[in-house]
Amino acid sequence: MAAAPEPGEPGKGKREGLPFKLLGILDVANISCARDSVLYGSLGSVVAGLGHFLLTSRIRRSCDAGVGGFILVTLGCWFHCRYNYAKQRIQERIAREGIKNKILYESTHLDPDRKQTNSDSSN
């Protein structure tokens, strides 16, 4: 008989395998930046719609402002997050190549650190 999984154990919960799809097409759990963008967009729509309603008391225009706020905030968060994600991937690739070159050229005549130490000791 299997023991009950701990609440904090990853991969053992009932809902772990169920994807959350927004509008049936956008899998929010597996697409990076999608969850935060949708959450911030919904908050932006509430703020924009409620703020517009408090200023003008026009219901239809306030709903339009809420939808516009959702679109603007979601797209803004999406592009900002994807830009930072791409920048981080480029930095990781550069660091990985640097480490690979360091391992490859270590203790050879092509090692730049070895050339500096040899030239310092000969002077």
From TrEMBL:
GO biological process assignments: mitochondrial respiratory chain complex IV assembly
Organism domain of life: Eukaryota
A Pfam entry, by short name: Cox20
Compartments in which it is found: Mitochondrion inner membrane
Protein name: Cytochrome c oxidase assembly protein COX20, mitochondrial
GO cellular component: mitochondrial inner membrane
Keywords attached to this entry: Membrane, Mitochondrion, Mitochondrion inner membrane, Transmembrane, Transmembrane helix
Family: Belongs to the COX20 family.
